[in-house]
């Protein structure tokens, strides 16, 4: 049946809602007596990644985290060692209200604040970079950043949002956040901008989106 399905061009509809909630406690379930592990130390079998609770962070908003893959863990190492990074977090469910064009919620891998920027970062296998679902979520997140920047303005001291879609092959020990931004920032193009409508734009304020 899927062979006969197609997708019509969709319009993103953006409404005035709070985009981010206050930080809420996160709970983790680790299996086994050795479930706690320093984030710099990968498990012997990478397939066991989801079993562990990782600790030892200094810049994370939470003192514990779980990772779905080793590229996610390696990204956390990059964020911790990069001097430009001030804070980072792995958002919990529903902390960011980002929805793709199918109205499916999107929970990004990382949210990062540097000295000059605010970033949403997603890591993916190289083979997934052109996956249709990945692209839809990337478009939604890039559009969210664009709208957040419009709402917040560009005055002195205001940090702009950017969305990074990073292949696992770029998550290397010598990588920096600045280098990843230079090569993997996803920009909003004219086609995407033409496919969204912003409701009640005149009443849109920065504290409602960032």
UniProtKB/TrEMBL annotation:
<feature type="domain" description="Type III restriction enzyme C-terminal endonuclease">
    <location>
        <begin position="58"/>
        <end position="134"/>
    </location>
</feature>
<dbReference type="Pfam" id="PF19778">
    <property type="entry name" value="RE_endonuc"/>
</dbReference>
<dbReference type="InterPro" id="IPR045572">
    <property type="entry name" value="RE_endonuc_C"/>
</dbReference>
<dbReference type="GO" id="GO:0015668">
    <property type="term" value="F:type III site-specific deoxyribonuclease activity"/>
</dbReference>
<protein>
    <recommendedName>
        <fullName>Type III restriction enzyme C-terminal endonuclease domain-containing protein</fullName>
    </recommendedName>
</protein>
């Amino acid at each position: 049946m899927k062979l006969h399905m197609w997708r019509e061009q969709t319009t993103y509809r953006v409404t005035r809602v709070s985009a981010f909630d206050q930080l809420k406690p996160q709970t983790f379930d680790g299996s086994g007596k050795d479930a706690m592990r320093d984030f710099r130390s990968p498990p012997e079998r990478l397939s066991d990644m989801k079993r562990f609770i990782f600790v030892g962070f200094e810049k994370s908003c939470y003192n514990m985290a779980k990772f779905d893959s080793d590229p996610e863990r390696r990204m956390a190492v990059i964020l911790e060692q990069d001097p430009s990074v001030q804070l980072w977090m792995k958002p919990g469910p529903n902390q960011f209200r980002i929805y793709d064009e199918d109205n499916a919620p999107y929970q990004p891998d990382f949210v990062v604040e540097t000295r000059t920027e605010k970033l949403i970062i997603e890591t993916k296998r190289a083979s997934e970079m052109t996956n249709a679902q990945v692209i839809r979520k990337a478009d939604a997140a890039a559009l969210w950043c664009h709208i957040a920047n419009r709402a917040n303005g560009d005055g002195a001291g205001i940090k702009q949002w950017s969305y990074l879609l990073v292949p696992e092959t770029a998550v290397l020990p010598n990588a920096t956040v600045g280098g990843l931004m230079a090569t993997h920032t996803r920009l909003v193009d004219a086609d995407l901008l033409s496919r969204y409508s912003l409701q009640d734009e005149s009443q849109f304020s920065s504290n409602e989106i960032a």
